[in-house]
Amino acid sequence: MDKKSILWAIVVLIISVVIIFYKFNQIPADLTRDEVEFTRLALSLSGEPYAPYSPLATGHSTLYFYLILASFKLFGVTSFALRLPSALFGILSPVVFYAIIKQIFPKKFSILSANWRTHISIPLALLLVFLLVTQRWYFNFARFSFEVTFLLFLELFDMLNDFCKFLLKRKRGERNLIIHNIFI
Question: pTM here?
Answer without folding.
Answer: 0.81
